Amino acid sequence: MAERLLASTNQMRLSTAVFLTVVVLIVLVLITTSGFLLSQGLSARNKPSNFEYAIANRALAISIPSNAKTAQNPLQQTSDILTGAKKEFVDHCAVCHAEDGSGKTETARGMSPEVPDLHADHIQKLTDGELFYIIKNGVRFTGMPAWDFPDDRIWSLVALIRELPKSYPTK
Ligand code: HEC
């Protein structure tokens, strides 16, 4: 009888401790979140931290289905295709990405998350299929729009992005 009473008292102590820990954790999360928001956390003037970028890039990689990642560019990279893609890029993408893909534009300067330099290793290392998927579907919570172009126009843009480091070598 006494043992059972002791066991149930111990159990009650444990549930109280678990309850209090959960309450403390919730309060801490609320304080941190409001601290973050009150320190202009959502202003586009603040650039995301490396930690936020690391999480966002990982989430983006996970969000692309594996059959989309392995898709190959069906177009031959002829100069006609690249000339057409260049026009498309200047008309629709250069406002943010700049004609040379560097992302150094007046619009990009005020954007957060930033417009990446398309020459960067982490972009050029994406597969053709990943580039296609990103251009077609855009990236939520960023300024990167989805595009309703026919697939061959998107593939021609993928080919153009692959050419950027050759057409506009960085110093
Ligand atoms: C309104 C501005 C804007 C326009 C217009 C725009 N982009 Fe972007 N783009 C962005 C931003 C912002 C990102 C960064 C997204 C992120 O943080 O993941 C981005 C990212 C990308 C990426 C890299 C994705 C990654 O891993 O970050 C590619 C490739 C790209 N854009 C291609 C294009 C192409 C091609 C066009 C034109 C058809 C285009 N973009 C038009 C803003 C823009």
Give me a quick take on this structure:
The protein contains eight helices and no strands.
CATH architecture of the largest domain: Orthogonal Bundle
Q: What is the CATH T-level topology of the largest domain?
A: Cytochrome Bc1 Complex, Chain D, domain 2
Biggest sheet, in brief? none
- Individual helix count: 8
Task: Please bin the fraction of helical residues.
Answer: 55-70%
Encode the helix/strand succession as letters.
Answer: HHHHHHHH
Task: Identify the CATH homologous superfamily of the largest domain.
Answer: Cytochrome c-like domain
Shape: elongated
Named once each, the bound ligands are: heme C
Q: State the total count of DSSP E strands.
A: 0
Strand percent estimate: under 5%
End-to-end CA span: 82 Å
Class of secondary structure makeup: mainly alpha
Low-confidence stretches: none
Q: How many separate structural domains?
A: 2
CATH class of the largest domain: Mainly Alpha
Overall average pLDDT = 92
